[in-house]
Amino acid sequence: AGAAGAYSDAEILAMVDEKGGKYDPKIYVDEALYRLELERIFARTWICMGHESQIPKPGDFTTAYIGEDPVVVVRQKDASIRVFLNQCQHRGMRICRADSGNAKSFTCTYHGWAYNQGGDLVSVPMEKEAFGGCLNKAEWGPKQARVETYKGLIFANWDADAPPLDEYLGDVKFYMDIMLDRCEEGTEAIPGIQKWVIPCNWKFAAEQFASDAYHAGTTSHLSGIMAGVPEDVDITQVAPPTEGLNVHLENGHGCGLFLRNPMFYMTILGPKVTEYLTTGPAYEETVRRLGQGRADVHLCHTNVFPNLSFLAGINTVRMWQPRGPNEIEVWTFTVVDKTAPQEIKDEWRRNTSRTFSAGGVFEQDDGENWCDIQQVLRGHVAQNQKFNIEMGTHTVTADNPEGFPGLSFAYTYSEESARGLYRYWTEIMTAPDWPAIRRSQQRPLAAE
Ligand code: FES
Ligand code: FE
């Protein structure tokens, strides 16, 4: 048996049959595989903690998760950021129980051990009397994670051998910039993180944001799109766009994008934000910064492996926090260009709440599908079938618009980046360490 106990490495690799165009839905339900995901994926890759603007001042903190491990994310006096395990090393209680705030120190509620903003253990009640000088406080602070940022997003990683964030993200940065780098000042997060629980595996959400434009044209989102069509517009113009790309990137990242279809924005974000994104000085600045090609991407769905997704254009950012194989907490917030007029920021917030939020119309469509699949997979026979993942294997093309990196399928309906995600999943799940993960990534990306 391999590292998963129940499964050998060969069995895990065989769960995704890229060439055969099928894969094994046990990856969504199996408890042993899930424990291995926490160890080999979440404890070794760069996980998003949120946005820098959520903790602007020294002492500002949020609590977050790396997989199921709770962490505290704190802005330091020197403006750097620390991320440490939210676990007191005395008996394991949470060091910080609030979602966010500002603190000079963190005091464990169980027996009162206190930690400074950096997570160092600085005070122990009755230390002299109770420990008689045997306690070396310097040794008993919580485990610290590596921390790096990319254009406002904060990432943390437990693994000392993991590549730097910049290298780990690689070419997905090119697509992240469509949302994060439209203007000189970058983005800010609209205050508040929405959090809710739904009963499905985290990979349904991650894969959809990496790869699945296909669902938008079916029942899934069509009614929401139609409902947003302005009265004076011919509804036949508003078919979900198929001009675009499905992009398979290294390290399991993936994205898909729509080109030249501002009407699609219009139906989701309304006329004001559409105008802001597609004409005028903000648009011109984006053309200067990113080039015409990216400035004219109208919606880009992306997943940064493993569990950070966003929709550039709609600007919803989400972390799919795993809670066992059968459940996730969805954490979302919205980012806006820092220099956008207040009226546009307000409009963006309202429209994202209406579409992609706990009560959002598109969110309901997506979540309903993921949760229903998860329920079907409770069945013994259902778990032992294979799922199809063939779409777009017939022509993977490399003729991207100039400068667009990745292996692409020149049509929005493809599962090339889903195949990339699941293939990477098999590689990282069976690799003992980062050198082995890097070696597996040296194989060519093309569907052989
Ligand atoms: Fe934190 Fe005892 S568990 S002080
Ligand atoms: Fe969707």
Helix percent reads 25-40%
> What's the number of helices?
15
Radius of gyration, in angstroms, nearest whole number: 23 Å
The global form is globular
CATH class of the largest domain: Alpha Beta
Number of E-state strands: 22
Average pLDDT level: 92
Give me the CATH superfamily of the largest domain.
Naphthalene 1,2-dioxygenase Alpha Subunit, Chain A, domain 1
Q: Examine the coordinates and then state which fold CATH places here, giving the name of the CATH topology of the largest domain.
A: Naphthalene 1,2-dioxygenase Alpha Subunit, Chain A, domain 1
Give a short account of the largest sheet. 9 strands, antiparallel
State the CATH architecture of the largest domain: Alpha-Beta Complex
Determine the strand fraction and express it as a percent band: 15-25%
The bound ligands are: FE2/S2 (inorganic) cluster, fe (iii) ion
Q: What number of domains?
A: 2
The assigned structural class equals alpha+beta
Query: First CA to last CA: what distance?
Result: 29 Å
Instruction: Point out poorly predicted stretches.
Output: none
Write up this protein.
By secondary structure, the chain is an alpha+beta fold. The chain has two domains: 47-149, Rieske Iron-sulfur Protein (3-layer Sandwich), CATH 2.102.10.10; 171-441, Naphthalene 1,2-dioxygenase Alpha Subunit, Chain A, domain 1 (Alpha-Beta Complex), CATH 3.90.380.10. 32% of the residues lie in helices and 23% in strands. It has helices at 9-14, 31-42, 127-131, 165-169, 172-180, 202-211, 219-227, 262-278, 280-290, 292-295, 342-355, 361-376, 380-383, 416-430, 434-441, and strands spanning 16-17, 22-23, 47-51, 60-66, 69-75, 81-85, 100-102, 105-107, 114-116, 121-123, 146-150, 153-157, 187-189, 194-198, 244-248, 254-259, 297-304, 308-312, 316-322, 328-337, 387-388, 407-409. Strands 13, 14, 15, 16, 17, 18, 19, 20 and 22 form a nine-stranded antiparallel beta sheet that branches. A four-stranded antiparallel beta sheet has the order 6-5-4-7, with no helix packed on it. Strands 1-2-21 form a three-stranded antiparallel beta sheet. Strand 4 (60-66) and strand 5 (69-75) form a beta hairpin. It starts with 8 loop residues before the first helix and ends in a 7-residue tail after the last helix. The model has no long low-confidence stretch (mean pLDDT 92). Fe (iii) ion is lined by residues 215, 221, 362, 366.
